[in-house]
Amino acid sequence: MFKFLTDRDTWQEVFDSLSKNKLRSILTMVGVWWGILLLIGLLGSARGLENAFNRLFGDFATNSVFVWAQSTSKPFQGFQEGRQVKLTLTDAKKVEENVEGIEFVVPRSQSQAMVVRNFLSGTFGINGDYPLLDQVQKKKLIHGRFINQNDIESNKKVVVISEDVYKQLFEKGVQAIGELIQINSMNFKVIGVFEVGNMNMGPSTDMHIPFTTFQQIYNRGENISWMMITGKPEYNIKQIEEDSKLILRNLNNVHPEDKRAFGSFNLGKEFAKMTGFLSGMQFLTWFVGIATLIAGVFAIGNILLITVKERTKEIGVRRALGATPYEIKRQILVEAVFITLLAGFFGIISGGWILIALDAAFGQGPDATMVNASVSIAVVFIALLILVILGTLIGLIPAFKATSIKPIEALREE
Fold first, then answer.
1. Of 129, 123, 137, 133, residue with least CA distance to 156
2. What does the H/E/C string look like for 82-145?
3. Is the pLDDT of residue 6 over 60?
4. Is the pTM of this model over 0.90?
5. Which of 14, 345, 361, 390 could form an SS bridge with 297, CB 3.0 to 4.6 Å?
6. Which domain, by its residues, includes 75?
7. Is residue 235 domain-resident?
8. How far is CA 373 from CA 92, 99, 110, 360, 377, in A?
């Protein structure tokens, strides 16, 4: 077989067959070309969307739910409807201790603050946080560090500021780390500068200070603004959300069926929806691409059947001169696979150009719709393998048709 494939006459015959009717040969390959183009283009687009989605949620522990207190919608145990509920550190600790599947509970407090440095000022969102936040909502630090346990224990007046705060309060090129800024007329030392992420959960977070310091200067005591609950990967975050709210209702004398008292946003549920959508999109892409490929390959098979009929006399002469049925079949199969692969290569190249164009149009900047829209080498090899298999299978039809021609009848053909 190898000798046959390297024989110049074999390929000369293939090229002669294709060149006899160039337009027909090109139109024959269009179906396969379009199928591969769709497969590469759609798979690359799906990967680009997935990359953009992962970048959007990349800073978060995705198996998480955010819970905050609101007002009640039902009277209960002597309390009137409309009572404002408050979350506390004790609530956060009870949830962590009693809900199965929880990995972390991060209590957080937030407010607005007037920030001044020299003659520059602005109003920004400020959060009191624990070091644990950097594990479940990773901060992209440009300079310095995040809050540590020593800052918490010593109630230090240190602050981690966003890049936006830096640009508003500091001149370009000035080193912010170690500098003092005034937050509500109190001096805080800047220990870090972080890049603002593509997605922020909750109120605007421009500055982070130690949780204990925040509680002290704002006189919050045990009260917190909200909590971030992260579940272990093997547990259902929807169930964790329901169990957490149930415990919070019991702790705060809220009616068991009161759905308004505690608000929440289930990041894990939303993330699962999006990943399900992306998986469905990839499945649909493979289905559409392969279905189009099959249609294109069938077109090649039909054209080869016409070609075999046109070459009836030629095949009869070859049979009369001693060509075996195997040799006739082999030649037809080589033509089928060659046409299929040639169209496939053009489809892969065209698909690559489309992905480059999509990346240039939609993949640039922090708000990119697609990030690195591409397909892996493995996908390309799988597509080529599918083409070889389909080309071989469809080539068997005209190949058997060619070998069924009897030499004497073929020579009688006009």
1. 129
2. CCECCEEHHHHHHHHHHCCCEEEEEEEEEEEEEEEECCEEEEEEEEEECCCHHHHECCEEEEEC
3. no
4. no
5. 390
6. 64-262
7. yes
8. 42, 40, 38, 10, 13
